[in-house]
Amino acid sequence: MSPRPLVIAHRGASGHRPEHGEAAYRLAIELGADAIEPDIVPTRDGVLVLRHENEISGTTDVADRPEFADRRTTKQIEGKEAVGWFTEDFTWDELATLTVRERLPHLRPLSAAHDGEGGIQRLSDLLRLLDDAPREVGLVAELKHAHHFASLGLPLDELVADELARHGWAGDARLTVESFEQTVLWQLRDRGVAGRLVWLVERAGSAADQVARLGSAAPTYADQLDEASLAGLAEAGLHGVSLNKALLLRASGETRPEIVDRAHAAGLDVFTWTLRVENAFLAKANRQAGGDAAEGDWESEFADLMALGLDGVFADQPERAVAVRDGL
User: Fold this and answer.
1) What angle do CA 252, 280, 205 make, to 5 degrees?
2) How many angstroms separate the CA atoms of 168 and 162, rounded?
3) What per-residue confidence (pLDDT) applies to 1?
C-alpha cells in the first residue's frame, strides 16, 4: 500500500530548482516524491509543453530574446488581463531555444542560481523520464486553461489523450489528471484515458468552463463543496478533489476538517496545495522571524494539514513533506 498522504512534487522540486525544468523533475525523484505534478499547455503547433502558465516571461528568458520581442502581447485569460509572451504564439522549435529560470528569485535565490540550466520540457520528455526512473513515480498532470485553448483550436483533451496513448500512459495506474475545469476531465474520460480524475478547487470564484456555459449563474467553487454536490461528483465518476490550502487552514493556524470529512464520506480522495516552507506561504500563525524568504514553522503546518487525513499533498520541497509524513 502506498504511504498516505502521497507527496506530490509541485512542478518538480520547485523549491530547489527552477520549476518544470528537467533538473527539478530529476531532483524530485531523488528526494523521494511519490509523484510529480506538471502543468500542461500547448504550443501553436500542438506540442504539449510543461509551464505553470501559458504566459512564460517569468519562467524563461523569452523577454531577453530580441528575436521574439514582437510576440509580446496582451490577452484575456479566463476574464483576467495578462501581458507577456504566450506558448500558443510559438512553435515548439522556437520554444526549444529558450532556457528556464526561477519564478520567485527574491524568495528562492539558491534556485535562481540555476537559471539558464536547461530548457522547456515537453510532456513526452517527462513521460520518458518517469518510465526510466529507478522506482515507480506517479504523474499528476494538470491541464491549464482548457476552455481558452479549445477556443484557439488547441483542444487539450484531444492533444493530451493522443500523447498519453502514444507513450502507453492512457491506461497506466501511475496516472492522475487534474483541472480546475470539470469539462475537460469528462472529455478525457470519453477519449479513453483511464487515469484518476481530480477536480482542482479554488477558495473563491467560479471555474472558467462553468462561467463560459452559465455566465453569472455559474456556481462558485464553494457552492459545490456541500454534501450533495460532492456525492454527485463522485457518482459522475470523479475520483478526488484538490483543495487550495486556504480552504483547510485559517490564518490562525487552526485547521478546518469539515470539507475533508464530507469529501471522504462521498467516496472522494482529498488533496491540498501547496506545502511550502517559506514564511511568505505559511499561515500567519506559523511565520517566524527573518522575512518572507526565511523558513517558518513549516513542520507544524505540514503536520496539522496531514492530520486531517488527506490522501495527498503538493509540496515545493518534497523531502520536507516526506519527513513530516514519515514522522506522523
Assistant:
1) 75
2) 10
3) 40
Which pLDDT does position 55 carry in this prediction?
98
Nearest alpha carbon to residue 138 among 44, 47, 28, 213: 28
Give dist(CA 309, CA 296) in Å, integer: 23
Cell numbers 512542478 label which residue?
11
Pairing mode, strands 312-315 and 80-84: unpaired
Q: What is the 3-state secondary structure (H, E, C) of the chain?
A: CCCCCEEEEECCCCCCCCCCCHHHHHHHHHCCCCEEECEEEECCCCCEEECCCCECCCCECHHHCHHHHHHCEEEEECCEEEEECEHHHCCHHHHCCCEECCCCCCCCHHHHCCCCCCECCEHHHHHHHHHCCCCCCEEEEEECCHHHHHHCCCCHHHHHHHHHHHCCCCCCCCEEEEECCHHHHHHHHHCCCCCEEEEEECCCCCCHHHHHHHHHHCCCCHHHCCHHHHHHHHHHCCCEEEEEHHHCECCCCCECCHHHHHHHHCCCEEEEEEECCEHHHCCHHHCCCCCCCCECCHHHHHHHHHCCCCCEEEECCHHHHHHHHHHC
Q: What is the gyration radius of the CA atoms in the chain, in angstroms?
A: 19
pLDDT of residue 2: 61
pLDDT of the residue at 71:
98
Extract the C-alpha cell encoding 278.
Answer: 517559506
Strands 48-50 and 269-275: unpaired
Question: What span, in angstroms and rounded, lies between the C-alpha atoms of 42 and 53?
Answer: 10
Q: What are the residue ranges in the chain where pLDDT is below 50? A: 1
The whole-angstrom separation of Cα 188 and Cα 191 is 5
Note if the bond before 109 is cis, omega within 30 degrees: no
Amino acid at 57: S
DSSP string, 164-223: HHHTT-TT-TTEEEEES-HHHHHHHHHTT--SEEEEEE-SSS--HHHHHHHGGGPPPTGG
Q: Helix, strand or coil for residue 229?
A: helix
The residue ranges of DSSP E strands in 88-183, in sequence order, are 138-143, 175-179
